[in-house]
Design brief:
Helix content is 16%, strand content 52%. It has 201 residues and is of the alpha+beta class.
């Protein structure tokens, strides 16, 4: 009688085990954005006496990867500091020589660590991106909101955030006649290709 009671339980256990083996386990997905340097624009503005200085920089390369399920992110966005330009040769020479010291620190790097939010297959989505901003040999934690839109496999995104460059170790270029703010504003308008693949173990 004891064996007769155990047998149905054994059958049920075996059936559950076979079902678990027969159904493929869901794989973690990795979403990767490859940014197009030719179509990505990095701008900065800096308030000064009587006017605002506008400048641009060029993207060298940018790859961002993340797991939509966990938000964990990686990759690098590298901006060429030597390309910083405000359209004024004298001012730009001083900026590269005394402020950015771009010959010594030729790259500005953003390393993403976490992305919160979901990318909608259509329309506009808002994500919160956290990461480490490396400028002039120092690292700063940054959190910024990014607005993105998908068209096919192409992603366009835009974000703006304050960069308190003096607090981050750079010099303020103010003179007796020209006063410049201690914080600049960075705006990135990125275009790239979005792909999804199984995450590597």
């Amino acid at each position: 009688m004891t064996g007769m009671r155990i047998w149905p339980h054994a059958l049920r256990f075996a059936a559950v085990l076979l079902l678990a083996l027969a159904v493929p386990r869901a794989q973690a997905q990795q979403t990767v954005l490859e940014m197009d340097p030719a179509r990505t624009r990095v701008e900065f503005t800096l308030g000064a006496t009587l006017h605002t200085v506008h400048g641009v920089l060029k993207l060298k390369q940018g790859t961002i990867s993340f797991d939509p399920a966990t938000g964990q992110a990686g990759g690098r966005v590298v901006v060429d500091a030597t390309t910083a330009s405000t359209g004024n040769d004298g001012r730009d020479s001083k900026m590269h020589r005394e402020i950015l010291e771009s010959q010594t620190y030729p790259e500005i790097i953003f390393t993403p660590t976490k992305i919160q939010g979901q990318i909608a297959p259509q329309g506009t989505s808002r994500l919160q991106v956290s990461g480490v901003f490396s400028l002039h040999g120092r690292e700063q934690e940054v959190v910024t909101e990014v607005q993105v839109q998908i068209t096919g496999d192409e992603l366009t995104g835009e974000t703006s955030f304050p960069a308190p460059y003096v607090k981050w170790g750079l010099k303020n270029p103010s003179t007796f006649f020209l006063r410049v703010k201690d914080t600049a504003n960075l705006t990135v308008r990125a275009v790239g290709r979005l792909t999804t693949s199984p995450a590597s173990n």
